[in-house]
Amino acid sequence: MTTHHATPKPTPTSTPPPAAGRAAVVTGGSRGIGRAVSLQLALDGLAVVVNYARDAAAAEKTVAAITAAGGRAVGVQADVADEHAVAALFDRAEQEYGGVDAVVNCAGRLALSPIADLDLAALDAMHRTNIRGTFVVAQQAARRLRAGGSFVGFSTSVVGTRFPAYGAYAASKAAVEALTLILARELRGRDITVNTVAPGPTATDLFLEGKTPEQIDQLAKTPPLERLGTPEDIAQVVAFLTGPAGRWVNGQVLRANGGLV
Which residue among 27, 167, 171, 195 sits deepest, i.e. has the most Cβ atoms within 10 Å of its Cβ? Predict the structure, then answer.
C-alpha cells in the first residue's frame, strides 16, 4: 500500500521589499512606547510617519532624532478615532513615501478606577481612543497596506492579569485582541500579517504617573525577571513582527511582559 504525503506548499515569493524602500505609520509615535517604536523602525531602515494627537513638540523631537541618525521621518497630527483625519494621515504617508508597509497603532488612553466609581465620561473617552481608534486605524491599514506588510495593534497584559481598577481599560484592550485574528483572516491572500502586542508593566510616563515608588517597586518585582519592561523592549518585539523574521507570525497576541500571565 502506497502512502501519499501532502505536498508542501511552495514558499511564497512575496516578501517584504528591502527596508530602505519601506514606510511605516506609527500612531502615538511621539512619546513612550510609540517613540521607541518609531526610532527602532527608522533604525531598521523604514521611513516613519510619526503620528501624534496633541504634543507637536514631542513629535518634532522624535522626528529630529530619527533624521539626525540618518533616517527619514515626518510628524503628522491626527486623532486616531477620526476617520477623516486618519485617512489624511495615510494619504500623507503615501505622498511622502509612495506607500505603507507597516502600521503600528500605539495610540491609547488609560483611566484607572474601580468599576463602581468610574466616571462614564472617562469610559467613553478611553473606549473612543482604544476601541474606535484601533478600528479606524486597522480599517485604513486593511485598505492601504502593500503586499508583504504588517499591522501591529496594542493591548495590555492586564487582559490576562486582571488587576483591580483596570476593568474599563482591560475591556477596551480585550476588544483589540478580539479583532486581531479576525482581521488576519479577512486579509487572506494579500500577504499581510496582523498581530497584537500586549506589554506588561513598562517604564513609560503613562505607566509611572500617579504611582508611588513603593507601588512601582512592587510591580517591578512581579515578573520572574524582576524588572519593569522598557519601551525599547517592546519596540524590539514590534520590529520582529514587522520585519522579515516575523513573517510566519500572524493573528497572534504576543504578551511581552517578562513572565506574567
Answer: 27
Specify the pLDDT at position 81.
Answer: 98
* Torsional class of 108: left (φ above 0), alpha (ψ -120 to 50), beta (otherwise): beta
Question: CA-to-CA distance for 38 and 148, rounded, in angstroms?
Answer: 19
Instruction: For residue 50, list its beta bridge partners.
Output: 26, 75
* pTM, to two decimals: 0.91
Kindly state whether residue 224 falls inside one of the protein's structural domains. Answer: no
Which residue in the list 52, 97, 166, 169 is annotated as catalytic? Answer: 169
Q: Is residue 212 part of a domain?
A: no
Over 80: is that where the pLDDT of 14 sits?
Answer: no
Q: Write the CB contacts of 84 (distance below 8 Å, at least 6 apart in sequence).
A: none
Question: How confident is the model at residue 210, as a pLDDT?
Answer: 84
Q: How many domains does the chain have?
A: 1
Distance CA 32, CA 202 (A): 9
Distances (CA, A) of 30 to 13, 39, 55, 67: 35, 10, 8, 14
The DSSP code for 190 is: S
Return d(Cα 253, Cα 236) in angstroms, integer.
Answer: 15
In a domain, 216, yes or no: no
| CATH code: domain of residue 33 | 3.40.50.720
Give the H/E segment covering residue 177. helix 167-186
In the predicted structure, residue 2 carries a pLDDT above the cut 90: no
Per-residue cell: 181: 485574528
Q: What is the pLDDT of residues 139-188, one digit of tens each?
A: 999 999 999 999 999 999 999 999 999 999 999 999 999 999 999 999 99
Q: Which structural domain, as residue segments, surrounds residue 41?
A: 19-202+231-255
Is 169 one of the annotated active-site residues of the chain? yes
Phi, psi of 183, deg, nearest 5: -65, -40
